[in-house]
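Quick one:
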Amino acid sequence: MKYDKPGKSFEISIRIFTDDLEKGLSEDNNKRIFTIKNNDQNNPFVERYVRKHFALTNTQKKAEIQYVGKEEEADATWIYLEIPFSENPEGWKLQNSILMETFDDQVNMMNLKLPSGPKTFLYKKGQSVQTL
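Output:
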């Protein structure tokens, strides 16, 4: 996740093992079977899933996430998001609970590049929200 100061937005790239993403989508959609490939028809399902498990909020509001798309490569799928953001991110909370409902031992790592410098956050069950 990188803050683009001139563009006033966060650029986000999420890497998920494709088979894990397919399982997470299946569990989120009444056990429907998903096969993730480039140019498939699954973008609405991926977008809804990510919006459910990934959010940037403060005490007054939730930042609007724009789903850019996804790209499958080898055994992983990249999901691309953008968040228009012109405020100071200090004190905002980032939720990342992707796949935590699917795997009890899921740990998500977020590398964040801010104007103040890089930060790394770990997310796991019971700790799916971190303050920037």
